[in-house]
Amino acid sequence: MSKTIDTTRRSFLKVGALVAAPAAAIGIPVAAMAEDGSKAALARLQDERAIEALNRDFLRAFNRGGAKDTASLFADRKGPAFAKGVSKLSLDLAEEPRSFAIAEDGATATARYDCTAEIADELAGKETLVQMARMQGNSAGSQSARVTLSAQYAKRGEGWLIASLDLA
């Protein structure tokens, strides 16, 4: 009586699941099991995702309420200095940054993004109606321009924060 062994992908996956189950059951983190360079790669990936989330939070807050709403995302708690006239920023988050680098020590990072800035022209005049219109967020007009957003990030105890942002 011969015994045949079925070696299909399904049997391979079943065996892999049985081998991995004890490690998952006792709660061994994936990073602890990896002793090769994958720990550093995992840490870098986590840092990249944290910076992407920080960018999304910045854009959402800036477009909603301007520079004053973004101060908590900055290391100096002041917000961006470029906000004069810039009313909205559009960054295609699905697109790769022009450049992105995390320092060897993992404490700082830099990035350059192509984005679209909406620049509003302020209403001129000191009349009451003009002042009221300005307070409501109205402007004489606006124009869109393609710009480069240069960002520098710093990692603190509470996570990644924006060190500085510049538009060019």
UniProtKB/TrEMBL annotation:
InterPro entries: NTF2-like_dom_sf, TAT_signal
Residues spanning the signal sequence: 1-34
Keywords: Signal
Keyword Cytoplasm listed: no
Taxonomy, superkingdom: Bacteria
Name of this chain's protein: DUF4440 domain-containing protein
Organism, as annotated: Alteraurantiacibacter aquimixticola
Classification of source organism: Bacteria, Pseudomonadati, Pseudomonadota, Alphaproteobacteria, Sphingomonadales
